[in-house]
TrEMBL record:
Species of origin: Chlorogloeopsis fritschii PCC 6912
GO terms, molecular function: phosphorelay sensor kinase activity
Keywords: Kinase, Phosphoprotein, Transferase, Two-component regulatory system
Name of this protein: histidine kinase
Chain positions covered by the region annotation Disordered: 225-245
Length: 492
């Protein structure tokens, strides 16, 4: 029987007797995802500084980049291995201008891509190798001979070195001129036995990411009673086997869509670095890049919503909440919202206070959740509509409100006809479908859970002449609350 001469990463970890689990595909995929989430948090907690000019680690991954947090993309050098039929390196194999590295930058200044042969067994594996001054970590998701999935990981620096040798040998065969540069990058983070506290920290983060066990029948019955209680504003999920299958299917769907889109965006951004392309081609590539980014962010929200639903608790746990400057988020988001509104023949005005207070939320998720909400909101409005976004301090909270305005008639007068709410049909536990527009989006309950997870609250009200009015409340940072209280006292 034919056998590939170079070992795959799963073979490297199996030979080293690293931590492994062979189970159903859905379970192994879940272990892979939560381990990546724990690794991301571990890196964020251990990076000394955040600077695009100071690299603090190297990440080798396949078949797509595994970390999207802005702090990590700035501070880590990332190399993505892919077996896609189109080899992006063929676009500019060794014609880089002097002073630029030989590895082609792709998704960001710190991200690059290298090819794998389609016949290579490694091309069927998902993996992530992390090299830092404090630790080396290998994560692998592979398929066993019996068809079952296996998830393996190891903090052993020697195992990480063997995994790099397996990868490096492939680079040597396909791109020998690049091997020396990659070898230097890997060896820059010399192998050291990780501090036991680092592994303990990873274990704690891993446990924090794990969904809780399904409630027993008695608990499920209790949850069903609470589900319809008027005093329960955030009804929990019953987590029946069918609903869990629905959520797992959505998780798998989001992952499968996100992966090829990330590859398309990677190749698109590589093409955009070509200086000889006509302006019309560049414009079209930018449109592809934008559309891919929007859909990747949508899939990320679907994935995150599915993760929240796998928890058996009646309220999602608020994680990674910190004081943050909302002004920075809005400055980056508002131009995108206006551009998206213009594409749908809508107008959008934003009214902000002179000084935006500091709020407490999740910096990595707030922009995505707000943009996702704006996306769904604009898709539900007819062409020609006007949207007003108001940001107003409200006691110890900040209120962000989305108000659809009455449409103007041909003579410029405001029409007062009743606004018909969009038809929404349920698709499983988390999604809704709008037949008029063909739009699939998160349902209201799932969207509310997302806002709860980032420390906020979403309220939706119907107004006959306007349509839906969406109001988001975000808590103020402690010092801002004190100032707000002082103002109230002075007023009285």
């Amino acid at each position: 029987m034919y056998k590939w001469i170079l070992p795959s990463l799963s073979e490297v970890l199996n030979d080293s007797q690293s931590t492994a689990a062979v189970c159903s595909s859905a379970k192994a995929q879940q272990q892979w995802r939560i381990s990546l989430a724990a690794t991301e948090q571990l890196l964020l907690k251990n990076l000394a500084t955040i600077s695009a000019n100071v690299k603090q680690g190297l990440v080798l991954a396949a078949p797509a980049p595994v970390f999207s947090h802005s702090q990590l993309t700035q501070s880590l050098q990332s190399i993505t291995f892919t077996a896609q039929p189109f080899n992006p390196l063929a676009l500019m194999p060794f014609q880089m201008p002097e002073g630029e590295v030989a590895i082609a930058n792709v998704t960001a200044p710190n991200e690059s891509i290298l090819p794998l042969l389609k016949t290579d067994p490694l091309a069927t594996e998902q993996f992530c190798l992390v090299f830092t001054d404090k630790f080396r970590l290998v994560l692998v998701l592979a398929e066993e001979n019996d068809g079952k999935k296996a998830f393996l990981f190891s903090f052993d620096p020697e195992v990480a070195q063997q995994a790099w040798r397996a990868l490096g040998a492939r680079v040597m065969l396909s791109n020998p001129d690049l091997f020396a540069e990659l070898e230097d990058l890997v060896q820059k983070y010399h192998p050291t036995t990780p501090d036991y506290r680092t592994i303990m920290q990873f274990s704690q983060l891993l446990l924090a990411e794990l969904p809780e066990e399904k409630p027993n029948e008695a608990t499920a019955a209790q949850l069903d009673q609470e589900k319809f209680s008027p005093n329960s504003p955030n009804p929990p999920s019953s987590h029946s086997p069918s609903s869990r299958s629905d959520v797992e299917l959505l998780q798998a769907f989001a992952h499968e869509v996100r992966t090829p889109l990330t590859t398309i965006r990677t190749i698109t951004r590589l093409l955009l670095k070509q200086r000889s392309l006509p302006a019309s081609v560049i414009q079209r590539l930018k449109i592809i890049d934008r559309e891919c980014t929007e859909q990747i962010d949508r899939m990320e929200l679907l994935f995150r919503a599915a993760e929240l639903e796998t928890s058996a608790t009646d309220k999602p746990t608020n994680t990674q909440l910190t004081a943050m400057c909302l002004e920075q988020v809005l400055q980056a988001s508002i131009p995108r919202w206006q551009e998206a509104a213009n594409r749908r023949n809508l107008t959008l005005d934003v009214i902000l206070p002179q000084n935006l207070p500091t709020v407490v939320s999740n910096p990595a998720m707030l922009d995505r959740v707000l943009t996702g909400l704006m996306e769904n909101f604009t898709r539900s409005l007819p062409a020609g509509s006007h949207i007003q976004v108001q940001v107003i301090p409200a006691g110890d909270q900040l209120k962000l409100q989305l108000l659809p305005q009455p449409q103007s008639g041909d003579s410029g007068t405001v029409t007062t006809s009743t606004c018909t709410p969009p038809i929404r049909k349920a698709l499983g536990q988390l999604l809704t479908f709008q037949p008029e527009t063909g739009t699939i989006s998160l349902n209201l309950a799932a969207t509310k859970h997302l806002f709860q997870a980032i420390g906020g609250k979403l309220i939706v009200r119907e107004r006959p002449q306007y349509g839906e009015v969406l109001t988001i409340f975000l808590p103020l940072e402690a010092e801002e609350k004190k100032e707000s209280s002082k103002l109230k006292i002075k007023k009285t």
